[in-house]
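Example record

The entry below shows one chain as it appears in the dataset: sequence first, then structure tokens.
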Amino acid sequence: MRSQKKGPFIDEPLMKAITGMNARNEKKIYKTCSRRSTVTPEMVGHTIAVHNGKKFIPVYVTENMVGHKLGEFSPTRTFKGHSAAGSKDKAVAPAGAPSGLPSGPPGGGGGAPAAAPPKA
């Protein structure tokens, strides 16, 4: 948490670029590696490409983002899911069934499957 007395931190080249674009009234993508910079009201409406360690992720700045850091909007890790093999061993029982008992239709049906009718 940064002190209120110091004010928000913004890298100097990023602030110069944003104020320059505002003065010229232009909207173009600005690439930056400064994930630590705080979003200010001057940045609203601009698209800033924030580096996530591998590539630049374009972030369109809105009013709700003011006060947050640029790095919050450019995730660094990609979740690819859990393995299918591990999910079979640790299957979760349905909410109504007590653990340890097989879940099935109410009223039984816990024995052998019903015999098929004879063919004519």
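Notes for this example: The two ends are 81 Å apart (CA to CA). The first helix runs from residue 12 to 24.
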